Structure formats: structure tokens, C-alpha cells
Give the backbone structure.
Amino acid sequence: MGGGAPIWLGMEAPSPMNPLHVVCPHCHTTNRVQAADLGKGPDCGSCHQPLFSGEPVNLSATEFERHVGRSQLPVLVDFWAPWCGPCRMMAPAFEQAARQLEPRVQLVKVNTDEAQGLGAQLNIRSIPTLALFVGGREVARQAGAMGAADIVRWTQGQLSRTSAPA
Ligand SMILES: [Zn+2]
């Protein structure tokens, strides 16, 4: 598994002349990565940490805006909070999903206690909530805890729907 054509969602298809923009989850530098190198465990050119670690990183509101605004990969966000039991239960499932979905999708987390303004701006009403962003726009949202297989299936389903002609 894990094959299949990458999803470019109407964005200009990457080519050697046109590498993908991928935002580093550690230092938030925008890297230019050739599509063919995505699966080779690319490191960040700035901080030299892996761009896809399989361990979703917690982002501040500012970092979130940067990722969603600049990444040319779909970004799946887990909105959570430390006091939320179902969120803590879902955390290992989200990590498992990251190992399956990366590097075709980038998975990150936002602590809504720390990023309250962002939660309000996006109208996050309950947690955990998963939201999928493509090209800076939210394309899908799902509230409630999910298992790893469901997270993967939901994300792939949303992406295939999004990339279908309107
Ligand atoms: Zn970096």
C-alpha cells in the first residue's frame, strides 16, 4: 500500500523546475522539495531535522498560519487540549495516521488552550476536531475522536473528493 498518484489538488504539478514547498515542523522554514524526494525522508535544509517525523508537532497560532499558508501539501490539523480525555486517547491514533499519511499529507497539532484566538477564529466548537487544509483553505472538518484507520480513511476520502472536478 501507500502507492497511488500523489494528489496535487489543482495546484501546479511539481516538476524539477517547480519543487514543492514544504514547511519544516521544527523550525518552520519553507523548504523546496522535489516531489520524487518526498518519500526519501527529506531533512530540513535549515535545522536538518526530518520534514516528516511521523510524530505530529504542536504548532502555535502563528506557526499554524505559516504552515497552512505556505505548504503545498495538504495539512491535517488535530485541534486538542491537555485536559480533554478523548483528545489524549486519540493522540496515539493521530501519530499512527501520520506514519501512514506522510509524506502525502502533513499532520500537525494545535493546542486550543494555547491558541485560543485561532480556535475562535476558526470556530472550533468542540475538541478533538480534525480539520484538513489544502492550499490555505479548510476543505473538511470532523469533530470527535477517531481511530487511526478512520483518520486515514477520512483524510483520503476528503482529498479524493476535493481533487474531483466540481
Ligand atoms: Zn527545520
